[in-house]
Design goal:
DNA replication, five-stranded parallel beta sheet, Rossmann fold, DnaA regulatory inactivator Hda, alpha/beta, elongated, Hda
């Protein structure tokens, strides 16, 4: 029950299941506020710059890709770019023409910190998008002040607009998120089994969902329910 990638103009793919509906955001949480903010920015073309930051595994990539899916559903032209994967290329070639996109999402912003060529290129892109009234959404594991950008003008730009610290989930919330994703896959995952997984697998949500994906395939192939012995055997715990 895996998801097929969606191809974008730069050959970068989005996961089909990276949607706002699939992002676990507890009621009254900051993360729910983040989701609502992102939807509002795409819908209303309000604030032109949104900066998300948080720990690895907090769901930053998911939120960026979900924003792209949401925008595309409204007929908006988008481009998602994972900076960690493209640092070996000249920024001018990769960023050329992005100012014409309605929404640009730059993931892994930390990767460009201290790289003069990339910093200058992003500064120019930021200004071009702002001048053309387009929306720029970025994500990093550091807040704007501690990102380590050397270009002062770029660092100041990163402190404009809307800034959100995406919160990592607690163990109880991870159990709820895992069970919710399992239900969406048509899997019956009890609270006890979900707790067993959370306590024994690296507690990064990406890792947990990868384990669920593996269990989904194994359960289908072997026609087995998700019991603790089956999970232990399948995941090698």
């Amino acid at each position: 029950m895996g998801s097929a990638p969606q191809q974008l103009s730069l050959g970068v793919s989005l996961k089909d299941d990276a949607t706002f509906a699939n992002f676990f955001a507890p009621e009254h949480s900051v993360n729910l506020e983040v989701v609502n903010c992102l939807k509002a920015q795409v819908e209303n073309n309000g604030e032109q710059f949104v900066y998300l930051w948080g720990a690895s595994g907090a769901g930053l990539t998911h939120l960026l890709q979900a924003s792209c899916h949401y925008a595309e559903s409204m007929g908006v032209n988008v481009q998602y770019l994972p900076l960690n994967d493209v640092m070996g290329f000249a920024p001018e070639a990769l960023l050329e023409g992005l100012e014409h996109m309605d929404l640009v999402c730059l993931d892994g912003l930390d990767a460009i910190a201290g790289n003069a060529q990339w910093e200058r290129a992003l500064f120019n892109l930021y200004n071009a998008l702002r001048d053309s009234g387009k929306l720029l959404l970025v994500a990093a594991t550091h807040n704007p002040r501690s990102l380590g950008v050397h270009l002062a003008d770029l660092q100041s730009r990163f402190q404009w607009g809307v800034i959100y610290a995406v919160e990592s989930l607690g163990d109880d919330e991870k159990i709820q998120a895992l069970r919710k994703r399992a239900k969406e896959r048509g899997l019956d995952l009890s609270a006890d089994v979900a707790n067993y997984i959370v306590q024994r697998v690296p507690r990064d949500m990406n890792q947990l969902f990868c384990c669920l994906h593996k269990l989904d395939h194994a359960s289908l192939a072997e026609q087995r329910k998700l019991t603790i012995p089956f999970v232990k055997k399948t995941l090698g715990l």
